[in-house]
Write a structure and sequence with these properties.
The chain has 10 helices and 8 strands. The protein is of the alpha/beta class and 220 residues long. It has one domain: Alanine racemase (TIM Barrel), CATH 3.20.20. Strands 7-6-5-4-3-2-1-8 form an 8-stranded parallel sheet. It is globular. It binds pyridoxal-5'-phosphate. Pyridoxal-5'-phosphate binds next to β8 and α10.
């Protein structure tokens, strides 16, 4: 199947409140253009340098999401254009995003990454760290970022019950935080679900799915 066919068939299964992020990491611009011409305007990349190169080459109405782990010293390269940073997992990183957003006269939307998996390899905050971050005066003073939701990744396993438990845990944390509404924190997005588990993620309350290989084919 072509990229266009893959995209249209996935889109036809998504409820209308769910945003599709086409994860295009490692793929050439020609593949992204095929998706763009089929109507896709949100792309996700996990390396800042690669995202910058693609942004320079592609139409300017594309929304770029950073879905990978972000190093503080590289935030400045994407600050002029990035639309959403999914993997924010520290106050230090938020402070740097705020600083770079300010330099560009922008407000940058962020998702806080929550650790819900059983694997030690996955990044993210636990519930206590999240509460501490949101209640800190440093966070409350950041004017050029906006936390609009949470992001999580399930354990890499075939066990659907395990995945479901982890997604449900993320949704529970999200729901509890609905009472926390400040100028720079208004949670309306849950980014969870990839090619292998997005339907389950949607059943568990996802509003944003990050799908790569089911659209563009496998990566090397
Ligand atoms: C690569 C990646 C995806 C997409 O994975 P697929 O299985 O190809 O859909 C989603 N989220 C993150 C954070 C990724 O790094």
């Amino acid at each position: 199947m072509s990229i266009e066919q893959n995209l249209l068939s996935i889109k036809s299964t998504l409820p209308k409140q769910v945003t599709l992020v086409a994860v295009s990491k490692t793929k050439p611009v020609s593949d992204l253009m095929e998706a763009y011409e089929a109507g896709q305007c949100v792309f996700g990349e996990n390396k800042i340098q690669e995202m910058v190169e693609k942004w320079e080459m592609m139409p300017k109405d594309i929304q770029w999401h950073m879905i990978g782990h972000v190093q503080t010293n590289k935030v400045k390269f994407m600050a002029p254009f990035v639309n959403l940073i999914h993997g924010v997992d520290s106050l230090k990183l938020l402070q740097e995003i705020d600083k770079q957003a300010k330099k560009n006269n922008r407000t940058i939307d962020c998702l806080l990454q929550i650790f819900v998996a059983e694997e030690e390899t996955k990044f993210g905050l636990d519930e206590d760290e999240l509460a501490l971050l949101l209640s800190s005066t440093i966070f409350q003073g950041l004017k050029n970022i906006r936390v609009i939701g949470l992001m999580g990744m399930a354990t890499f396993t075939a066990n659907q019950n395990q995945i479901k438990k982890e997604f449900t845990h993320l949704k529970t944390i999200f729901d509890k935080l609905q009472v926390t509404k400040t100028t720079n924190c208004q949670l309306n997005t849950i980014s969870m679900g990839m090619s292998g588990d997005y339907q389950l993620a949607i059943d568990c309350g996802s509003t944003m799915v990050r799908i790569g290989s089911s659209i563009f084919g496998g990566r090397k």
